[in-house]
Design goal:
With 308 residues, the protein is mainly β. Helices cover 11% and strands 32% of the residues. The strands form two sheets. The protein has a six-stranded antiparallel barrel. The radius of gyration is 19 Å and the shape is globular.
């Protein structure tokens, strides 16, 4: 049986180098055109990273028994993510097909184009540098006092923190507080910076099948928007270092660097904080991502701000 995956692992194909990040900030586990997880008897058979299958000649594929054994939930911060726990019970459903388009304005889907335009004004890239090393993730503004929500595992390593807005300006951020159990952290930047706070969805209003957008900086590509749907609610997974907690499951593409960014509905309201993905045998996104429900994230963030 394969061992538990200790993280996103080494690239399985040509390394993707983001033009927006310095070499020490490159996302962990990023790949471009990853090698397929099959064995080959020819001289050019693919070589895998340290957490992938070794070269095995013509050994028959083992996918039927690997599907559940290899399924792992990992944090998706670039450079700071690690194991976030197994999918509870090992019975995560297959990915739900992407939502190609939203419903009409005013419906549960709303207008995703307009939603993306509104949301991007409040989403930032989070850059952390310490001791010659770096990590990167995403975040979003939640009030007009300059408070930014992100993931704890993005900033847990300490160091100098900067956020980069839609206009490319770098702002120095101060860590207000962090909560490892829920994987939420709050930063603060000076107000009057042009960033726009994002509205939060009302508790209990998110619906399975509802179109959503994941917004952030996957692989250092700031201002990236991916579309999908809410695949499930109250999915029990381990996020951070605590016990299992209910999460929003989505098939919107989430990758290293998306950590801490918002998952928003068609009205531009935040329904969750993107935190982790499920992987098979160290692969990247397979269409099963998880977000901290916005009501829990907001509650924790307000507590950190009050103590801050």
């Amino acid at each position: 049986m394969p061992s538990t995956i200790p993280g996103l692992g080494e690239p399985r194909g040509p390394r993707f180098v983001s033009p927006a990040l310095a070499p020490d900030e490159q996302p962990t586990g990023s790949t471009a055109a990853p090698a397929p997880p099959v064995a080959s008897t020819g001289p050019d058979r693919p070589r895998y990273g340290s957490d992938g299958p070794a070269d095995r000649g013509a050994e028959p594929p083992r996918w039927p028994r690997l599907l559940l054994a290899g399924l792992t939930v990992v944090a998706v911060s670039a450079g700071a993510g690690g194991v976030a726990g197994h999918v509870a019970g090992g019975d995560a459903p297959p990915a739900t097909p992407d939502a190609a388009a939203a419903g009409p304005p005013g419906s549960a889907g709303g207008d995703l184009v307009a939603a993306a335009d509104r949301v991007l004004a409040g989403v930032v890239s989070v850059r952390v540098s310490t001791g010659g090393r770096g990590a990167s993730g995403s975040g979003f503004l939640i009030d007009d006092r300059g408070h930014v929500v992100t993931n704890n595992h993005v900033v847990a390593g300490g160091g100098t923190v900067q956020v980069v807005g839609r206009d490319g300006r770098r702002l120095t951020a101060r860590l207000v507080g962090r909560d490892p159990d829920t994987d939420i952290a709050v930063l603060r930047v000076d107000p009057g910076n042009g960033l726009r706070p994002l509205p939060l969805a009302s508790a209990g209003q998110t619906q399975v099948g509802e179109p959503v957008l994941a917004v952030g900086s996957p692989l250092g590509l700031s201002g990236t928007v991916t579309a999908g749907i809410v695949s499930a609610l109250d999915r029990p997974v381990r996020l951070g270092g605590g016990a299992r907690q209910p999460a929003v499951q989505t098939d919107a593409s989430i990758n290293p660097g998306n950590s801490g960014g918002p998952l928003v509905n068609g009205r531009g309201e935040v329904v969750g904080v993107n935190t982790a993905i499920a992987t098979l045998e160290g692969s990247g996104n397979i269409g099963i991502g998880f977000a901290i429900p916005v009501e829990r994230a907001a509650q924790v963030a307000q507590g950190l701000i009050a103590r801050g």
